[in-house]
Each structure stands twice: as structure tokens, then as C-alpha cells.
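Human: We require from you a protein record containing the residue sequence and its fold in C-alpha cell form, and nothing else.

Assistant:
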Amino acid sequence: MGQMNQTVSHFFAYISKIRWIVRWGLKRNAIPENVMEHSWEVATIAHALALISNRRFEGCYDANAVATAALYHDVSEVITGDMPTPIKYHSKGMQAAFKEVEVQAERELIALLPRDLQQDFEPLVVSSQVPKDIKQLIKGADTIAAFLKCQEELKAGNSEFSKAAEDIAMRLARSDIPAVDVFLEVFAPSYKLTLDELLNGSEKVRSLPAQ
């Protein structure tokens, strides 16, 4: 049995509120996306990138550690909100100011945890303590997720995302992570398919009987 009279921690209740933080706030969205959904997608893609790197490019990632870090990579936004990229990187001064806010938010979240668990969560929540190689992989996964989001919006007829799609595609083309190219070649094309097309294993949907 655990110790009695444990101090209550608000940490998980607090970060669960990221489900209410809407992403892409400066754009009209045909398909809304929140930070919790985004974090799950980035975690699964980052996990795949780690495994691809290990199997095909002599990487030595702990794929489970990568996935876990990715799950927490945006939790500070429960305090800061989702800052749109054009604003966040508008100027060096703006970028530095937002970084300081982000660091303070991470510290406040860590402080919500029981003291004996804080050191375990710091390499997940505090961005400066995430190992550089893991952070790079998560960034690659984050960019892929943004690319897939743009493609989804364009497919829905939302031209609001056309410029963002071009910019993100260029960033991916400059990526120096080989596993990113593999993911885009092997997995990304299927995102264009409907559920019926996926279930049929083909881009062509077999005729369905009249209802």
C-alpha cells in the first residue's frame, strides 16, 4: 500500500485541459484541432521515426522514451495557449519573450508534481532538459503533423492553408533526418484516402450496393 495522507497534485488534471486549447488560431479551420489530439499524433509519428532510424539508419533511440517526450512536448500551452508561428517568430525580441514565458510555464507545471517525482518529469516537460537528439526527432514529427494537417485542410477545400502547406513542405525537404523522408514516402500518401478506400486496400473504391 502507498503512504497515507498523500498531498494532492493538480498536475494531471491541469495538463488534461490541453484538450481545450485550439491550434492554428489565426486561420479558419475546416477541421478543428486541439493540442491533446496534436500531441498524440506527434507522439505516434515520433515513435515511428525512432524505429525507422534504428532499423534503417543505425540509430540507437529508445523509441518509447521518444514517444513519451513527444506526448508532453506541448503541455506548457495549457498556461501559454497555442502561440501561432507567425507571431512567435515575428521578431527576435518576440521569440525571446515567448521563450521566457514558456520556460516559466514549464517550471510552474513541474512545481505541481510531488517533490519525489519532479526529477522524473523534468526531462519530459522542461524543453531545455529534453535530450537534443530526441528533441530533433520530435521536431521532425511535429513538422510532419503540421504538413498532414495542411493537406487535410486543402482536401476539405480550405485554401487558407495553401501558403502554410508550401512553407512546411519546404521545411520537410530541407530536413536532415532520413527517417522523415521514409515516413513521408511510406506512410503519408495514405492520409489522402477515405476510410472506404483504406478498408478496400486501394485508392479505388469498389461500388457499393444501393441503399
